[in-house]
Amino acid sequence: MHPGIKLRHIRAFLEIADEGSLSAAARARRLTQPALSRSLGELEAMLGQPLFLRQGRGLALTEAGRLFRRHAAAGVEALEAGAAALAPATAGGRIDVGVLPTVAARLFPRVALRFGALRAGIVLSVETGPNTYLLRRLRDGAIDLMVGRMPEAAEMAGLTFEHLYEEEILLCARAGHPLAGLPARDVLRRSPLILPPAGAIIRRPVADYLAAHGLGGAVPVFETVSLAVGRGLLLGSDAVWFISAGVIAEDLARGDLVAIPTGARFLSGSVGMTTRQAGADRPGLDLLIQLTRDLGRRLQGGERVLMPTVEDADASDR
Q1: Using an 8 Å Cβ cutoff, are 260 and 231 in contact?
Q2: CA distances from 53 to 9, 58, 62, 65, 227 (A)
Q3: Averaged pLDDT for residues 169-186
Q4: Complete domains list, the chain, with CATH
Q5: What are the beta bridge partners of residue 96?
Q6: Which of 160, 164, 166, 186 is deepest in the core (most CB within 10 A)?
Q7: Which residue numbers delimit the HTH lysR-type domain (predicted)?
Q8: pLDDT at 310
Q9: What average pLDDT does the segment 163-189 reach?
């Protein structure tokens, strides 16, 4: 684009196109007609072709003018949306979000810190819970957004899911587990087992894996997807736990827990955002969704993103 084109040129052009005449556009923009005509002339000169033809007392768009109008209108709309998203909230507000365990430790805390830095006037209320509970809350309008694993197809009526990244289900144990070097099947036969609860999305693929390895009758000693509970059980015993990678990402990075290779490609699933198809008109919700989308793309690209600190949040916005 010509470096001399300014936003005032674009706004002047769009106003003239909307009004159909210089005089009407000048009144609408509270400018003199010569000043508006000069802006139009400058724009046409920089684009290298006329945008309007005179028709009686009015102006009609040329073929080039119609093409430019479509792109110019979209560009101004996008700029205004971006400015609105970053504007400080004046009336405050509240956004209610449900997060599943797979995003509660790694993805969403970083998103929340960034959102808080940009929209300090809006309260971000975050709750966790089982998939079925959060889906019911979403349908009832009690939450505006759910972030986590993709719901079952049968549960998606009236809802929309946006994929962010793929995430593995891991078999994990404490560092120094006496059987950690053995094949997963042997570890599972000789270790206390912790499974996700029956209502958890990841329970079915885990059950399929156990059945495929002749362990369909294995009885867990505990069932949980809670990081605090599962981590405590692993560190205090020789138990092993099937859990989403995002839940234990920090513990793996620190070396407190280790992953035992399962060799199962199907032990993975889509993580993303679920919203009502009708949408929710909440100030700041579009920004929250975009921040979640941006970080999800980084995770999809393989970037290692762990639990942020306040310093991390500050640095990310400088």
Answers
A1: no
A2: 18, 9, 6, 9, 68
A3: 95
A4: 7-86 (1.10.10.10), 94-165+270-316 (3.40.190.10), 167-268 (3.40.190.290)
A5: 125
A6: 164
A7: 5-62
A8: 39
A9: 94
**Cβ-based neighbours of 192, under 8 Å, separated by 6 or more:** 221, 222, 237, 238, 239, 240
Task: Write down the pTM of the prediction.
Answer: 0.63
Amino acid at 153: A
pLDDT of the residue at 164 = 92
Which residue reads 């990075």 in tokens? 253
Contact between residue 244 and residue 219 where contact means Cβ atoms under 8 Å apart: no
Report which DSSP code applies to 88: P
- CA–CA dist 259, 175 (Å, integer): 9
CA atoms within 13 A on the CB side of 107: 34
The torsion defined by the Cα of 285, 291, 292 and 293, in degrees rounded to 10, comes to 110
Residue 106 near residue 250 (C-beta atoms within 8 A): yes
Angle (CA) 197-302-245 rounded to 5° is 15
